Every structure is written in structure tokens, then in C-alpha cells.
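Q: Here's a chain of 206 amino acids. Please give me its 3D structure as C-alpha cells.
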Amino acid sequence: MEEITIDLKDLFQVVMDHKKKIAAITAAFMIAGGAYLCIASPVYQSTSLLRIKQDKGLGDSIMSKVSGGNTLDDKQRMMTDAEILKSRNVVLPVIAATEEKDEDGKLPDYEGYVKKHIVTKPYKDTEILEVDVTGKDPETAQRANNLIIKGFMNRLTELSHDEQKRTREFLEQRLGASKEELGNAEDKLQQYQSANKMYSTDDQMK
């Protein structure tokens, strides 16, 4: 295998021979970069940090203490909350409150706004979710971020109330069914006792 050597003198000579071309290319890129900075609209970003803390039932608390917690479940909860934060119920009111209509009288579409303006990501290895929102000026970015966080919290409250309502309805249905099953069982027991002439003195006194 041949060893490749580089002669610094030859390399320097090549640079010197093409110094005008190198300088011209460098200057062109600098001019293009400066022109872009002058033409391009500035983008401002507002950042919020949310601590995602889920309420756990008794069973979950016991299992968490025994197993030391479940990192996978925590990540899934984080991803779920991130999707709720970027959902239509949360984002559409923000678009209506912070964005201007175009020439056709239309607001930015939901998908495009989320892709362009909202970024969510875990903050290191913690229960904290970082929310970055961009806008055309600092005030718009800050206002949009605040509205998104407020809408997200309201949406979590709504989902919690809906879950509690479904749980209560399920328990009420089960309670009614259990009472009916208990009544049927008592009737069958009495019929069986009567058919077999089984009597209890204490039960008769009651």
C-alpha cells in the first residue's frame, strides 16, 4: 500500500495560484448571506417548560414503588401530552387569536401552523416537556405560547372530567346490576330453603 504524502509548500502554492478565485467565491457567499439576512423576515421564539405529572391510582402507586417506576410509561405519557398540546382543540383557537388572514380572508391551516410554529420535546431526562413556539414578533410568539399552554391545561381538565364521568356511570351501572343479582340470589335461596324445608330460627326471628 503506497503512502500518500502532502507537501505543504505545494499546497500553499496551489492556494496562492487560485487566491483570486477563492477570494471571489468567499466574497460572493458573504454577500449572499448578508442579503438573505436583510431580506428574510426574523423569527422569534418563546419557550415554556411544563412538568408532566400524572395522577396514579392505588394499584399504579404500589407497582411503581415495587418496580421502581416505568420509564417507558413515562415517555408514553409525555408523548401523549405532547400530542394533546398540538391537537386541533388547542391550536385552532390560538391561530384565530394570533394570526392574520391572507388576501382570501383565510387563516393559516392547522397542519401548516403546527409544523412551522410548534415544537415539543422532552427536557433532558426529566418529567418536563419543552414547548417552543415561534412568531413574527416577540409579542406574538409569547402570546401564542401562553394561549397554547392555557388551552392544553383546559383540555386536560376536560379529559379528566370525561374520564371521571364515564367511571361514575360504569360504577352506577355495576351497582344496579349487582343489587339485582343479589336480589335474585336471595329469592333463589329462599325458594331452595322452602322446597327443602330448611329453616333458620335466627332468620325467622329477623
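Q: Can you summarize the key feature?
A: The longest helix spans residues 138-195.
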